[in-house]
Design a protein that fits this description.
485 residues, 4-stranded antiparallel sheet, 13 helices, 4 strands
Length: 485
C-alpha cells in the first residue's frame, strides 16, 4: 500500500517538469533578423547579413571586394555598408539581446528545491521541499505576449537602423561624387584661365596689354587656384566621410567613385498619398505602435495583479526517524513520514499596488502621446521630403536648361566682342567668373536633388532624421557666392 500513492512533492515535481518542457522555446536560426531582412529586401532591394563567425566574415569580405573592383554606384555603396559597417552589426547584436529576453520571458519559472538534514544521537530528521511560483505560472501567457511585442519592436528598430545607414550612405555618396565633379570642373576652368594669364603676360611684354588688364587676368587665375584648392580639400573630406560610413579600412579605402553625378531623371515620381504611404510603411512608427501595445498589456497585467506580486506553492515532505533503547537492551526504530502543502503570498496591508498601477498608467500614456506625436511628424516629414524632392528637381532643371546655356552664350559673345576690341578685358573676366559660379551652382543643385530623393525614400520607409539637403553648402559655389556679396 505504501508504493501506490505518490508523494505530493513528486506530483508537483513531475507537473512542474512537464510544464517546463512544454514551455521551452529556442532561439530562431536567424537571430531575429528575418523581419529586418524582409524590410531591407523590400526597401533597398538587398538583404542583410549578421556577421557572427569567421566564415560569415570571410563571405562578407568577398562580397565587399567584388563591389570595390568597379566604380561604386549608390546601390553598391549601400551594399558595402550593410556588410562592413560595425555599428550596424552592433545593432543586430542588440536585436539578439532582445531575442534572448523574449526567450527568457517565454519560459516557466524554475522550481526551487530545498533539502535539510538534522541529526543527533538517536534521532534523524530529513526535510524536502519543492517551491513553485504560481504567480509566474499564471501570468506566463501574458508575459510571453508582452515579450513578443517587445521583440517585434526591437526588430523594427533594427530595420530602422538599417534604413538609416542606407540613407546616410546615399546622402554622403552624392556629396562625395559632387565634390569630384566640382574639382574636375574647376580644373578645366583653371586650364583656360592659366592660358589667358600666360597670354596676358606675353601681350604685356609686347606692349599690347596694359598693367591693369594684366593684373585682372592674373587675379582671376589666382582666385581660381584658391577655389580649386578648396574643392580638392572638400573632395578628400567628403570621400573620407563616405569611407567611414562604409566601414572600410586598409587597402579597401582605395575604392573608386564616378567623376560626375548622374543626369537628372526626366521626371520625378508623383507626390500623391505620401502621408498614407509613410504611415503604412515607416518602420519607426511600427516600432512605436508595438511599444504601445506592449505597455498596454503590461498595464492590464499590473491592474489584474495589483494586490499581490507573488504567490508561491510549496510541497513539503518530512521524514523523522527515532531510535530508543528497550528494556532488554535492544534498539527500537520508529519512522514517521509527513507530507504537506504550503502557500506563501504577500498581504497587501500597506501597499495596495497603487504606485505600480500609476507607474504603468503613466508609462502607457507617455507612449501613447509619443506615438501620436510621431504620427504627426511622419506626415509632415513625408510632405516636406516630397516638396524638397520636387523643388530641387525644378531648380536643377532650370540651371541645366536655362542658366548654363545663357551663361555660355554670354561668354561666347563677350569673347567675340573682346577679340574685336569692342569691350575691355574686365567685362570678359566678369562673364568668365559668372559662368564658373553658375556651373558650380548647377552641380550643387543636381547634388541636392539626389540627396532629396534619398531623403524621400527615408521619409516613406524609415531611416530618416539626417541632415537636410539644403545644409550642405560648404562648396566652392557657396564660397564664391559669399565672396561676391
Amino acid at each position: 500500500m505504501r508504493r501506490e500513492p505518490r508523494t505530493l512533492a513528486r506530483a508537483i515535481g513531475a507537473g512542474g517538469l512537464s510544464l517546463l518542457l512544454a514551455g521551452c522555446v529556442s532561439a530562431g536560426p536567424d537571430g531575429g533578423l528575418g523581419v529586418v531582412d524582409a524590410v531591407a529586401r523590400n526597401e533597398l532591394g538587398r538583404g542583410v547579413v549578421k556577421v557572427s563567425t569567421d566564415a560569415e566574415a570571410a563571405v562578407a569580405a568577398q562580397g565587399v571586394w567584388a563591389a570595390l573592383k568597379r566604380p561604386l554606384t549608390a546601390d553598391a555603396a549601400v551594399g558595402v555598408a550593410l556588410a562592413s559597417n560595425r555599428a550596424l552589426q552592433a545593432a543586430y547584436n542588440e536585436l539578439g539581446v532582445s531575442e534572448a529576453a523574449f526567450l527568457q520571458a517565454s519560459l516557466p519559472p524554475n522550481p526551487k528545491i530545498g533539502l535539510s538534514r538534522l541529526g543527533g544521537g538517536l534521532e534523524l530528521e530529513l526535510e524536502r521541499s519543492l517551491l513553485v511560483s504560481l504567480y509566474a505560472l499564471a501570468t506566463l501567457p501574458v508575459r510571453r505576449e508582452i515579450a513578443g511585442d517587445q521583440l517585434r519592436a526591437a526588430q523594427m528598430r533594427a530595420a530602422d537602423a538599417t534604413l538609416k545607414l542606407a540613407t546616410d550612405v546615399r546622402r554622403q555618396y552624392w556629396r562625395a561624387v559632387a565634390a569630384n565633379q566640382q574639382a574636375a570642373t574647376l580644373q578645366q576652368a583653371k586650364v583656360t584661365t592659366d592660358a589667358a594669364a600666360e597670354l596676358a603676360r606675353k601681350l604685356g611684354e609686347s606692349g599690347g596689354m596694359n598693367k591693369l588688364d594684366q593684373a585682372r587676368e592674373y587675379a582671376l587665375a589666382a582666385e581660381l587656384d584658391s577655389q580649386l584648392a578648396r574643392a580638392r580639400l572638400a573632395q578628400r573630406l567628403e570621400r573620407e566621410r563616405l569611407t567611414r560610413l562604409l566601414g572600410l579600412w586598409g587597402p579597401e579605402i582605395d575604392f573608386r567613385l564616378p567623376s560626375a553625378l548622374p543626369p537628372l531623371p526626366k521626371s520625378v515620381r508623383s507626390a500623391t498619398d505620401v502621408e498614407a504611404r509613410a504611415l503604412a510603411r515607416r518602420v519607426d512608427l511600427q516600432a512605436a505602435r508595438l511599444d504601445l501595445e506592449s505597455l498596454g498589456k503590461s498595464l492590464g497585467l499590473t491592474q489584474a495583479t495589483r494586490f499581490t506580486t507573488d504567490l508561491e506553492l510549496a510541497g513539503n515532505s518530512k521524514y523523522d526517524r527515532q531510535k530508543t533503547v528497550t528494556e532488554d537492551g535492544g534498539i527500537a526504530k520508529e519512522k514517521l513520514n509527513r507530507r504537506g502543502l504550503a502557500i506563501e503570498f504577500e498581504i497587501p496591508l500597506f501597499d495596495f499596488g497603487q504606485a505600480r498601477t500609476i507607474d504603468a498608467e503613466q508609462r502607457y500614456m507617455r507612449a501613447a502621446n509619443l506615438l501620436a506625436a510621431k504620427a504627426v511628424n511622419v506626415r509632415s516629414e513625408a510632405r516636406e521630403a516630397a516638396m524638397a524632392c520636387r523643388g530641387t528637381w525644378d531648380i536643377a532643371r532650370h540651371y541645366e536648361a536655362t542658366v548654363l546655356p545663357l551663361r555660355k552664350q554670354i561668354q561666347d559673345e563677350a569673347l567675340l566682342q573682346y577679340s574685336g576690341m569692342l569691350v575691355d578685358v574686365s567685362s570678359l573676366i566678369a562673364d568668365v567668373r559668372a559662368r564658373i559660379l553658375a556651373q558650380a551652382q548647377a552641380i550643387d543643385a543636381r547634388r541636392d536633388f539626389w540627396i532629396a530623393e534619398a531623403e524621400l525614400r527615408a521619409a516613406l520607409a524609415g531611416g530618416g532624421a539626417g541632415a537636410s539637403s539644403g545644409s550642405a553648402s560648404a562648396s566652392p559655389a557657396g564660397a564664391e557666392q559669399a565672396a561676391a556679396h
